[in-house]
Design brief:
With 220 residues, the protein is an alpha+beta fold. The protein has one domain: 2,3-Dihydroxybiphenyl 1,2-Dioxygenase, domain 1 (Roll), CATH 3.10.180. The chain is built from four helices and 13 strands. It has a six-stranded mixed β-sheet with strand order 9-8-10-13-12-11, covered by helices on one side. Strand 8, helix 3 and strand 9 form a beta-alpha-beta unit. InterPro entries: Anthracycline_SecMetBiosynth (IPR052164), Glyas_Bleomycin-R_OHBP_Dase (IPR029068), Glyas_Fos-R_dOase_dom (IPR004360), VOC_core (IPR037523). It comes from Streptomyces caeni. This is VOC family protein.
Length: 220
């Protein structure tokens, strides 16, 4: 994001997050002391301000190879982040960008599916059937395996957004009271992008923060 300090103020008040230095100029966001997200400054001001979904993997280079073989692209090659882990950025065949994280001393989320933490990632695709084929071959056990807790869905872009919107992932954060959270977003300088609607996994509203990054509020 362009201004990490402004991001800390916005999300700290919205979700009750606290922050500590992570690596470089990035900061960890914590909920009751548990890691729930990270805020990082943009290296290139021409790039959009976004939330990025990272999929955990035990072997980022191997998964990067499978992504290429399945028709995706590697945007950023697997790169060590000190002893914290290995990260990479990839794009699916339709161009939706996502991250890979091979945990080291930082395994990933310390809390999720509770108010103020990650709860769902929705992929808005041009062709959901293509997305199903691509991601099922990469993350089948996590997405479709027996006993798996769903945290990832696929839908057509036009179901919620204008048809010209490019394919993308939308990060959802859980909230106790959707109406109160929407009011807080607007009070803090954000805006409502898509008013509340009912999805199979809860009530969703799409918003942007005060720097233009889109995310969703999810009340279950």
């Amino acid at each position: 994001m362009p201004d990490v300090e402004a991001g800390k103020r916005f999300y700290g008040e919205l979700f009750g997050w606290t922050f500590e230095e992570a690596y470089g100029s990035s900061v960890w966001a914590r909920l009751d002391g548990r890691p729930v997200a990270a805020l990082a400054p943009k290296r290139d001001g021409r790039m959009p301000t976004v939330w990025t979904v990272y999929f955990a993997t035990p072997d980022a280079p191997a998964l990067a190879g499978r992504i290429r073989a399945a028709g995706g692209q590697i945007v950023t090659l697997p790169t060590p982040v000190d002893a914290l882990g290995v990260m990479a950025l990839a794009a699916d065949p339709e161009g939706a960008v996502f991250g890979l994280w091979q945990g080291g001393t930082h395994p990933g989320f310390g809390a999720r599916r509770e108010p103020g933490s990650f709860a769902w990632a929705q992929l808005y695709a041009r062709d959901p059937a293509t997305a199903n084929a691509f991601y099922a071959n990469l993350f089948h056990d996590a997405l479709f395996g027996p006993g798996a807790v769903p945290e990832f869905g696929r839908a057509a872009v036009g179901d919620v957004f204008p048809a010209e919107m490019p394919p993308h992932f939308l990060v959802h954060f859980a909230v106790r009271d959707g109406a109160a959270a929407l009011g807080a977003v607007e009070r803090l300088g954000g805006r409502v992008q898509v008013p509340p609607f009912e999805a199979s996994y809860g009530q969703v509203a799409v918003v942007t923060d005060d720097q233009g990054a889109s995310f969703a509020l999810l009340q279950r």
